[in-house]
Design brief:
Rossmann fold; 44% helix; binds S-adenosylmethionine; binds 2-acetamido-2-deoxy-beta-D-glucopyranose
Length: 243
């Protein structure tokens, strides 16, 4: 009986210590419950399949947004009738494409990245529909600079939706800038907030990125400017609704 009692405690320890086993993108996990969820919800358009395929072939799929996350973004965009979208961390364009598919024909997606090569070689190649491609405006410089320019250009409070998925050390900066740019009722989603489970490491064992994500999570949890949910989906996704 004693063993029966201690076994679940050991398991609990194992799950905490190796929390990465409990979360993961559908790309890289064969967990049957996760695969069931994906099979019964994720629906990809042909252009999205092509973008995933070409990205995986050229650069691998480690950096690409998970389909279940990008589709959740799309559904949030539709739910709040978002038109103007900020995509912080464009990479090959998967999350930007999802947003462009979800906004109306006069919608805009501002894609930000320091490197143009990823998008030039993938997004720009597979997104051949001119009406779709025209919605995506790209800025290849640090996202912090682009968002400062958007603020200087007088567009604060005019954006509907922001997806944060770039360098982790600047997450708090991006969160603050997105919050300034968003209208009341706008939504920010933030990817990788569980960071393959490393987020539960003791603070003194964390590297710079893990620490930055943990700092952001603690800030957001106590932030009275937003209503928040942190979902253990894919690599962890925070949804913050601006009051
Ligand atoms: C995880 S990927 C983005 C994935 C993309 N959202 C998707 O759905 O496939 C992160 C991207 O952030 C970019 N990045 C890194 N530092 C940046 C910075 N300071 N400003 C803008 N983008 C940056 C990287 O070049 C990389 O392409
Ligand atoms: C800010 O406005 C200028 C002038 O209209 C424009 O050239 C620039 O692209 C804008 N910047 C951003 C990030 O939209
Ligand atoms: C929120 O703030 C309180 C008071 O500063 C702090 O004790 C608490 O740990 C914070 N919550 C989180 C999740 O960081």
């Amino acid at each position: 009986m004693r063993i029966g009692l201690s076994f679940p405690i050991f398991l609990q320890f194992a799950v905490t210590r190796f929390a990465s086993a409990a979360i993961g993108k559908s790309f890289s996990s064969n967990d049957p419950i996760l695969q069931y969820s994906i099979k019964h919800s994720v629906q990809l358009e042909q252009v999205q399949k092509e973008l995933i395929e070409l990205t995986s072939r050229k650069f691998g799929n480690v950096m690409m947004g998970a389909p279940e996350v990008v589709q959740l973004n799309q559904n949030l965009i539709r739910a709040i009738k978002a038109k103007n979208i900020l995509d912080v961390g464009l990479f090959t364009g998967y999350s930007a494409l999802g947003a462009a598919l979800a906004v109306p024909s006069d919608g805009t997606v501002v894609g930000m990245d320091v490197y143009s090569e990823y998008f030039d070689q993938v997004g720009d190649v597979v997104i051949t529909d001119v009406n779709l491609r025209r919605k995506i405006k790209t800025f290849f410089q640090p996202a912090e600079i682009t968002m400062n320019q958007l603020i200087e250009n007088g567009t604060a409070g005019q954006w509907d939706f922001c997806f944060i998925d770039a360098d982790k050390k600047n997450y708090i900066t991006y969160f603050e800038q997105c919050l300034s740019l968003l209208r009341s009722g706008g939504i920010i989603t933030i990817d990788n907030v569980l960071w393959s489970g490393r987020i539960v490491q003791p603070k003194d064992e964390m590297d710079e990125s893990t620490r930055a994500i943990d700092d952001l999570n603690k800030l957001v949890a106590n932030d009275t400017r937003v209503f928040v949910s942190l979902l253990p989906i894919a690599d962890g996704l925070t949804i913050a609704l601006k009051k």
